Amino acid sequence: MAYPVKMIVIGAGSRGEGYTHYAAQHPDLAQIVAVADPLDFQRNVVGDAHNIPEERRFRTWEDVAKLPKFADAVLICTQDNLHEAPAIAFAKLGYNILLEKPMAPSAESCRRIVAAVKEAGVLFAVCHVLRYTAYTQKVKQLIQSGAIGEIVSIQHLEPVGYWHQAHSFVRGNWRNEAESSFMLLAKSCHDVDWLRYVMDCSCKRVHSFGSLNFFRKEKQPKGASDRCWDCPSCIEKDCPYSAFKIYLRDRLDKGHSQWPVDVLTDKVTRETVLEAIKNGPYGRCAFACDNDVVDNQVINFEFEGNRTCSMTMTAFDQHTGRRTRIFGTRGSIDTDSEIIHLYNFETNTMTDIDTNIKNDGGILSGHGGGDEGLIASFTKAVAENNKDYILSGPDDTLESHLIVFAAERSRRAGTIEEIK
Ligand SMILES: NC(=O)c1ccc[n+]([C@@H]2O[C@H](COP(=O)([O-])OP(=O)(O)OC[C@H]3O[C@@H](n4cnc5c(N)ncnc54)[C@H](O)[C@@H]3O)[C@@H](O)[C@H]2O)c1
Question: Which of 155, 167, 268, 289 could cysteine-pair with 257, CB 3.0–4.6 Å?
Answer without folding.
Answer: 268
